[in-house]
Structure to design on (151 residues):
């Protein structure tokens, strides 16, 4: 069973989430988190996915951009859990949470390899390919809400 829930900034759970994000997203690229990058996350929403045992297997962050739009970022799933629905469950939970907070649009910067995953979840690619952290990305978005265009 998978439990998805918010965790607080600067807690042991947050430290576990940073370690997971580092292992999945940063270490393979030879990148570190800077204290400034982590410090800027205090106002983000952090959603963790944990197995029934309590082991964290996924994390994503939501950063409000304005009162209508929220950005999903730093989506990481433990390698042994990839392809098992953890990422999709976290994305769907994040959309439900964003809608409950009255956000109308979810945006994200998807690594090129993750574009098919987000397309399956109803996201659309917007604009041209670009480089971020040294690898190709695409901006993607999804309109949230019942009856909304693209929902």
């Amino acid at each position: 069973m998978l439990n998805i829930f918010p965790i607080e900034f600067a807690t042991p759970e947050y430290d576990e989430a940073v370690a997971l994000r580092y292992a999945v997203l940063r270490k393979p690229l030879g990148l570190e988190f800077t204290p400034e990058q982590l410090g800027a996350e205090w106002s983000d929403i952090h959603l963790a996915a944990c197995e029934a045992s309590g082991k964290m297997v996924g994390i994503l962050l939501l950063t409000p951009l304005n009162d209508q739009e929220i950005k999903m970022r730093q989506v990481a799933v433990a390698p042994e859990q990839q392809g098992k629905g953890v990422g999709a469950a976290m994305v769907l939970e994040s959309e439900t949470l964003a809608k409950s907070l009255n956000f109308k649009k979810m945006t994200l910067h998807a690594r090129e390899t993750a574009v098919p995953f987000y397309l399956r979840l109803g996201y659309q690619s917007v604009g041209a390919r670009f480089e971020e952290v040294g690898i190709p990305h695409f901006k993607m978005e999804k309109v949230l809400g019942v009856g909304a265009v693209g929902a």
Notes: The chain has one domain: 2-143. Residues 2-143 form a domain with the Aminopeptidase fold (CATH 3.40.630.30).
